[in-house]
Design goal:
It is a single chain. This protein is an alpha+beta fold. It contains six helices and five strands. It has a three-stranded antiparallel β-sheet with strand order 3-5-4. A two-stranded antiparallel sheet has the order 1-2.
Length: 119
Amino acid sequence: MAIGDVEVCEHTEVHKDRVENILHQMPSEDQLCDLAELFKVFGDSTRIRILFALFEAEICVCDLAETLSMTQSAVSHQLKILKQARLVKSRREGKSVIYFLADDHVRTIIGQGFEHLSE
């Protein structure tokens, strides 16, 4: 039987052991909300472009804006979101602020996304 394009069971039979196991393993609602918010950050192509640039090098806002053909203000706005999501970090070097990936998890998440798309 199907509802729209999705097939569903022809009769209702709840497998309580499976349901209990899943519920036992399910993260808390707060953790799931935090995870959803993290994935929302990846939902913007400008932020993905910034992350790809940071895969190649640690870079200051000026150079990042030039690389992406964007204003420093627009880049800074996106970097703030990435920083709040703990995906990038920064340090001051003289008059410049250098941005870099927070850790290798960022590279892994993006890499697995591309791997999934190519399957």
